[in-house]
Amino acid sequence: MSANENEQPQSHAIPTSAPAEPPFSIFDKRQKWLIVVIVSTAATFSGFASNIYFPALPTIANDLNVSLELVNLTVTSYLIFQGIAPSLWGPVSDVKGRRIAYTCTFLVFVDACISLAETKNYATLIVLRCLQSTGSASTIAIGSGVIGDITTRAEHGGFMGIFQAGLLVPVAVGLVIGGALAGSLGWRSIFWFLMIYSAVFLVVLLVLLPETLRSLVANGSMLPSQSNPMARYPLQAYQKLITVKLAAPPQLAARKRVDVLGPFRILVSKHAAPIIFFLAIYYAVWQMSITAMFSLFKDRYDLTEIQISLTFIANGVGSMVGTLITGKILDMDYRRIKAKHEALSSTDTEASDNNQSQENNAFPFLKARLRLLPHLSLLLFGWTIQYPSTVPIAIPIITTFITGWTAVSMQSAIMTHLVDIFPEQSAGASASVNLARCLLAAGGTSFVMPVIGGVGVGVAICVGVQVGFVVM
User: How far is CA 239 from CA 19, 131, 234, 245, 446, in A?
Assistant: First the structure.
């Protein structure tokens, strides 16, 4: 049989005389940080493409000669496809590889941005916004998969905290950038900015991000066959830098078929459904409050568009700070509760921390990850902004900082938990969360203002939070 027949992935592990257990990942701490920074930056595009667009809505409506209500539907359509698209690209990345999935999604996004910058009518605008969402939304699911590939359970919290912080950068600065671009260069400049940003980043990603899918490269020490050059580079360069010495190469994870229905099965599974729907409802209420902030701050405190955009910085900064701290707390909580659980365990064999399989279901991951759930921040926002004549504007702005902190803390905990319990479908698990929260947010943001007008901000938010408690 020739060497080219049945070509197997090549191992670059260095043999030693003493046996050594293969590490979960060959990437060292600095390399993991680089990888997480890259995928976190990639994940910002979904939020940027959504939030940066808000300040330009009135201008777009006027330029295209349609009502503001119709232009608002482009936000709803974006959220719908933001929920659906990862259900396709997440499973693809779990089977075909992270790099190929990233490349396809960014090419779609770049093309959509160019077309949006040149659009002349409303029908084209709404179709292209759906296409843009299809390209950008999946970066979150793929990034979650990458982190699951290279980190152990004990590391998930900290690295997922960094990843979640990256997701909130658009909340902090997207609206400000969008307002500045729309006000100075016109609304089309927003899409040219996104096109240039995404094209440059795609080049950086292709040069620096190695393939991490464990069914292709195991712990990073295996090279895929020559027929898959996309997965081979730059992994070869990383392998030349490693100092890990192994007695034997690790085994590749089992190859799977693309399972488009996988995220939907996770969504309705008994282990995931309660917390996913709780997060989805909480996220929808949070997004409804953010959407309502434009009208509420303008009507009740007489702020200009630029001033309103600046108020969102508090929410974004709170989100980033909160998720960074929460990630560290999750890791400390995990180690403490794991130690306590193992001390009380009566089993004869201890599960390895690097064993990412379902055989560890006895360990109370839910308790370790979800002990601290935020419940009060949205209520504070709703009831403080309810009375603008007696409550100074600084109070609701401060509560948006707390809202961002607590909402993303909960999101970080739940996402980390799902990566724990679905290690071989980490991108699919993230896609299931995205599906639920974006679809609920799309519905919620479409009727939030009529509800607030009917019952008031405080009561409306109370109802949303209470529904979340019932689901949990």
Answer: 20, 37, 9, 12, 50
